[in-house]
Amino acid sequence: MPSKADVKALKAQLVAQAEQQILKLTDSDRFKQYLNTLAKFHHYSARNIDLIYAQNPQATQVAGFKQWQTDFNRTVNKGAKSIRIAAPIIKKLTPAEQKRFNTTDERAIVGYRYLPIFDVSQTSGEPVLSAKDFVKENLADHQNVTSLYNAFKDYLNQQTDLKVSEVPLAKLKGAKGYFQPSTNEIVIGGDEPDNALKLKTLYHEYAHSQLHGLKSAFKDRPRAYQETQAEAVAYVAMQNIGVDTSNYSLGYVATWAKDKAVIHSALSEIQQVSNKVIELSDGLTKQLGLQEAKKEPEHDLKKLSAQDLNKSYQRLQQQVQQMTNPQQKTQFKNQLHEIHEEISERTQKQLQAFAKQNPEIKQPDSEPDQSLKR
User: Fold this and answer.
1) DSSP label of 155
2) What is the mean pLDDT of the chain?
3) Residue 1 pLDDT exceeds 90
4) Is residue 116 classed as helix, strand or coil in its secondary structure?
5) Per DSSP, which regions of the chain are E strands?
6) What tens digit of pLDDT does each residue of 164-176 get?
7) H or E stretch at 33
8) Residue 257: exposure state from Cβ atoms within 10 A (0-12, 13-18, ≥19)
9) pTM for the full model?
10) Above 60 in pLDDT, residue 197?
11) Residue 295's pLDDT band (boundaries 50, 70, 90)?
């Protein structure tokens, strides 16, 4: 298990890296285009949000018939069934009405009418940027994440006052999971097919429970702060076990923390929870025997397929580039060297076998031309 100093250094490095990458993304022209797109959509009341969901649970971006044409250069598909929302009818009050209603307001809502709107899926035309363009959900397949997910879930259920349960994704209204402060319960989409994303979601909701529970110091932070903090903790936790979720996490955070001040402030508050999650994960991976497997990769290299060997090599290359801690960087370099040696050995064997089967192919001279030597 890493020392406390190593954990602190790793956490600081990963959080700083996350902040840098998020800021880089939010500075991009494409993300600014996304913000401009968001600004064109109306912000609906809770009542209308409920109405939209009741009529079309899959709706993500909605606008009126003409607005789709003028603002987005899209047209509503023929035969599309509209979603109805409530729009207030506002009337200018007469002095008598002001007196009767005991108000000095010149205008008041006197009723509601129902207006038709359409989801983006019911339209055709130019592409519309959405959060999904910055949040890529298909993470790479990683071994052992299922074991760690189950161990972490069991630990929270048995050793803490949290309750972790699973429900079908269809019941989560497009979310992967949630934390309910009033019951101190975490609910995860149990049928999520991507095991790495499932584990990351559990880290995310656990971070919410620690940072934004009823007794937590940061429970009153705005939603953008809370989501930025929870996903940053999840990102750090997954990086710690060698799983890069930046394609998902950084885009997710950026779609919430559009203000750079929010990013800076929110990430500065996650240190304690990041350390706690890393320590918990290290303890669980040690119990599962996963750390020992990492320390002695040579025992497993012979059993790996060529594809898995190449994936491991590429992942370690990335980790070596990201690491700033000298001790950990040396450890990853040693693992990288071992995999490189295994790949080289396999390649040599394949070349020798090919040469043996094809003796007509001329072999290189054993003593190359002296002019080619350096």
Assistant:
1) H
2) 78
3) no
4) strand
5) 62-63, 74-76, 83-92, 107-119, 123-125, 163-167, 177-180, 185-189
6) 999 999 998 888 9
7) helix 29-40
8) buried
9) 0.57
10) yes
11) very low
How is 173-229 classified by DSSP, letter by letter? TT-SEEEETTTTEEEEETT-S-HHHHHHHHHHHHHHHHHHSTT-TTTTS-HHHHHHH
- pLDDT confidence of residue 236: 78
Q: Tell me, what's the pLDDT at 265?
A: 79
Which residue, among 115, 118, 126, has the nearest Cα to 58 in the 3D structure? 118
Inform me whether the pLDDT recorded for 207 exceeds 80: yes
- Report d(CA 52, CA 296) in Å as an integer: 54
Closest CA to 267 of 14, 27, 8, 24: 14
Q: Encoding tokens for residue 361?
A: 């192919």
Over the Cα atoms of the chain, what is R_g? 28
The separation between the first and the last C-alpha atoms of the chain, rounded to the nearest angstrom, is: 46
Closest-CA residue to 250 (of 240, 261, 236, 262): 236
